[in-house]
């Protein structure tokens, strides 16, 4: 009789998602860490992890290296910065272990959030909201004059993974000129995709620049003063990637000097953003507090994605969202 798999989880799941996980792994041994954490939290070491074949959540990065029994780690986030190190990659590859993330589970909400940003910008919704909360006037003429259509405009999607692909699908009905930037285009992308070496030439042509870059040493402060200077004064910048990819002060300077029309940010640098940071009070900046991936079925989606991959793992098939 085969020995059942032992699955460790340290993500703080709501009851419905917990029940779904228990039912989905009924034939496995499920260990819940006593030190459960929110999705974006940093986890301490946990003795229970030593007993696990599979980790579902956010295990301690150093412990991932030392626990030889671990064969598969499935992260409950799309980001994986704390695990993106050569020592972890070498350790996992040496014992034929695998790491996956939850990019697929977050592609829909993040893409919809980016679309909401773009439509809000085009239809001047923040301007109307400011008026409603303040002067309560009836500035119909200027708002109508400033509103625009997305049709025919150019959107540059910087970072073209599962979120970027889904955003391109959502934008397709608007008949925009869509261009993607990724480090190494694969040739199977659904829209024209260029290497990041072409970014400087493309930035001056874009009406919308959507940043979906992950956090890494290569992307830290990627959007800095030099790159912002290449933007058209009428362009709009969106960040649903990671806050560390943007120089916040350089962004604020561009907004204040009106060399950039507007910025819509779901992530900031630092995060949380300091209450006295000038981006909060810039009339040309709208900030959501890292909520792009959130929705009322978020944790159920995470569990379903894990269970889908678990079936693949058991069948010896390729796993979704494999990063190591």
Could you please describe the fold and organization of this structure?
It is built from eleven helices and twelve strands. The mean pLDDT is 96. The chain starts with 5 loop residues before the first strand and ends in a 9-residue tail after the last helix. 33% of the residues lie in helices and 17% in strands. It is an alpha/beta fold and 324 residues long. Helix 1 runs parallel beside helix 11 and helix 4 crosses helix 7. A seven-stranded parallel β-sheet has the order 8-7-6-9-10-11-12, with helices on one face. Strands 2-1-3-4-5 form a five-stranded parallel β-sheet, with no helix packed on it.
* Sheet with most strands: strand arrangement: 8-7-6-9-10-11-12
Q: Topology as H/E string?
A: EHEEHEHEHHHEHEEHEHEHEEH
SS-derived structural category:
alpha/beta
| Total number of beta strands | 12
Helix % is: 25-40%
Q: Pick out the low-confidence regions.
A: none
Report the mean per-residue pLDDT as an integer: 96
Question: Which value, in Å, is the CA radius of gyration?
Answer: 22 Å
- Distance between the first and last residues' Cα: 31 Å
Strand content: 15-25%
Number of helices: 11
């Amino acid at each position: 009789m085969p020995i059942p798999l032992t699955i460790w989880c340290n993500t703080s799941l709501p009851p419905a998602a917990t029940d779904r996980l228990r039912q989905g792994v009924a034939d496995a041994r499920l260990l819940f860490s006593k030190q459960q954490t929110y999705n974006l939290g940093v986890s301490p070491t946990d003795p229970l992890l030593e007993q696990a074949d599979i980790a579902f959540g956010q295990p301690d990065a150093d412990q991932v290296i030392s626990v030889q029994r671990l064969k598969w780690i499935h992260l409950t986030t799309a980001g994986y910065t704390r695990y993106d190190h050569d020592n972890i990659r070498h350790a996992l590859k040496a014992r034929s272990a695998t790491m996956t993330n939850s990019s697929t589970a977050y592609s829909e909400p993040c893409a919809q959030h980016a679309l909401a940003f773009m439509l809000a910008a085009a239809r001047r919704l923040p301007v109307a909201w400011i008026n409603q909360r303040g002067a309560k006037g009836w500035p119909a003429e200027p708002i109508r004059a400033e509103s625009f259509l997305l049709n025919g405009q150019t959107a540059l999607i910087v970072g073209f993974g599962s979120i970027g692909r889904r955003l391109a699908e959502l934008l397709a009905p608007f008949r925009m000129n869509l261009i993607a930037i990724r480090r190494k285009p694969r040739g199977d992308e659904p829209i024209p995709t260029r290497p990041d070496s072409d970014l400087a030439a493309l930035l001056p042509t874009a009406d919308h620049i959507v940043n979906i870059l992950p956090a890494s040493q290569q992307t830290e402060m990627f959007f800095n003063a030099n790159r912002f200077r290449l933007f058209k004064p009428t362009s709009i910048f969106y960040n649903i990637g990671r806050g560390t990819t943007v120089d916040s002060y350089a962004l604020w300077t561009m907004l204040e000097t009106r060399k950039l029309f507007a910025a819509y940010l779901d992530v900031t640098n630092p995060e949380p953003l300091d209450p006295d940071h000038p981006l909060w009070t810039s009339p040309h900046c709208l900030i959501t507090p890292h909520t792009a991936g959130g929705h009322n079925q978020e944790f159920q989606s995470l569990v379903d994605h894990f269970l889908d991959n678990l079936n693949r793992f058991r069948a010896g098939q390729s796993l979704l969202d494999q990063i190591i």
